[in-house]
Amino acid sequence: MKISLSSYKTEITNSHKILNMRKISLLAGVLFILITGCRNKDMIRPGEPINTAYDKSMTLYENGKYSDAAYGFDIVTRQGRGTNYAKDAQFYLAESYYNDKQYILAASEYERFISYYPQDPKRVEVEYKRALCYYQQSPRYRLDQSATRQAIELFQLFNTNYPNSEFVLEAAEKIDELRSKLARKAYESGNFYLRTRRYLAASIYYDQTIDQYPESKWAEEALIKQIETYIVYADNSVPSKQAERYAKAIENYEKFLQLFPQSSKRAEAEKMYNEAAQKLAEAPTVAAGENQGGN
């Protein structure tokens, strides 16, 4: 039986293809074995000695595999209670969560460390890191600020308890930053109510900004807005209420001069003061005993 040259070439080509596919499959199998072998080597097995489990977890941590490291450290804390391995694992469990940006879990594990090891030298760092967890959860000013307030409270407590700590200045800076965020939230709430012509509500939020956060830049802005608010409030009030509200505008101008005598906004404040003073002089007076109902 004769085989044509073309058929022979086709058969040779197909043989080469099959051979190459076998080589690829063999190489893939070797790589799979190597990879799974490395993974199995890093995995923490049930019943493994605590020191081995701790060392494997630390290797994962140092390689930036924080989620896997947290799994391992958690096992060590459970199986090695009463040992130094468990104590160190508790610290690095919290650190793993923190570096993995799982701040709620990190805060919980830092608190657990404080509860279990209150006399440990790492406690100072741990308390600071716990406050940092809430700092990291603090959202932009328009959102709920529960985490912001919790962070401020913890940073203040930290600075009170550890006034000589290396973290004190950094904690103070973060307190200022977070308080400024709360001040802005109150200030912007006042602006919202002013825009929607709810003047009493606006004045309450401006007062909150001024009284609770006088060191922030928003206090100065709030006082300027407070003057404006009472003038507009008086303009839109019944005649019997106008004098009282123009007087409040003047009162806030005087407060502005006391708190911010060198302010760049002084000319703006004086212009509103002159407007309020003129309108107060022209406002109808209310006789004693006269009904002052209405808005």
What features would you describe in this structure?
This protein is mainly α and 295 residues long. It is 76% helix and 0% strand. The protein is built from twelve helices and no strands. The chain has helices at residues 5-42, 50-62, 66-79, 84-99, 103-116, 123-137, 146-161, 168-195, 199-212, 217-235, 239-259, 266-282. The longest helix is centred in the N-terminal third of the chain and has 38 residues, at 5-42. It is elongated and about 90 Å long. The N and C termini lie far apart (114 Å). Mean pLDDT is 87; it is low at 28-40.
Morphology: elongated
SSE succession = HHHHHHHHHHHH
The structure class reads: mainly alpha
Low-confidence segments, ≥5 residues, pLDDT <50? 28-40
Query: Share of helix among residues?
Result: over 70%
Rg is 35 Å
Strand content: under 5%
Largest sheet: none
How far is the N terminus from the C terminus?
A: 114 Å
Mean pLDDT over all positions: 87
H/I helix tally: 12
Classify the oligomer. single chain
Strand segment count:
0
Summarize it:
76% of the residues lie in helices and 0% in strands. The chain has 12 helices and no strands.
